[in-house]
């Protein structure tokens, strides 16, 4: 199980470095931090707690697997969603935005499927459509809250 943690930690570190050194982002640093907080809060605090407390999924009790899951939830998932949000805001067409949201939902569902396959989580009363619905809800919620943040951010700078 230590190998799982090492693999997840390495993947997270590589994704973090990729995120930092990718060409310039359209999102401001404050927007990135806001998205990170929102995504982490809703995913880790609400969605994860809800699914665990209602016994829809079970988390591995092996310490290495548990920490691999924590690192994954705190680093790679928020970074991936923020990276896709940046790509979505760059698009002008509605169909391109929908395609990126669909790509995000499919990719995040694939990440969750990998976590199930390697034993980090075990679905008890959980179905694939619930995973896709959770990711879609999280992405749409983050997009809506980012719009609110951007309007407040814009008003603050216009008033100065």
Give the secondary structure arrangement, pairings included:
Elements: H1 2-21, H2 29-53, E1 57-59, H3 63-90, H4 94-117, E2 121-123, H5 128-158
Antiparallel strand pairs: 1-2
Helix pairs in contact: 1-3, 2-3, 2-5, 3-4, 4-5
Folded structure, characterized:
It is globular and about 55 Å long. It contains 5 helices and 2 strands; from the N terminus they run H-H-E-H-H-E-H. Helix 1 packs parallel to helix 3, helix 2 crosses helix 3 and helix 4 crosses helix 5. By secondary structure, it is mainly alpha-helical. 80% of the residues lie in helices and 4% in strands.
Number-wise, the strands total 2
Low-confidence stretches: none
Strand content: under 5%
Overall morphology: globular
Helix and strand pattern: HHEHHEH
Radius of gyration: 17 Å
Look at the structure and give the mean pLDDT.
83
Total helical segments: 5
**Structure classification:** mainly alpha
Helix percentage range: over 70%
Largest sheet report: 2 strands, antiparallel
Query: Strands of the biggest beta sheet: in what spatial order?
Result: 1-2
End-to-end separation in angstroms reads 54 Å
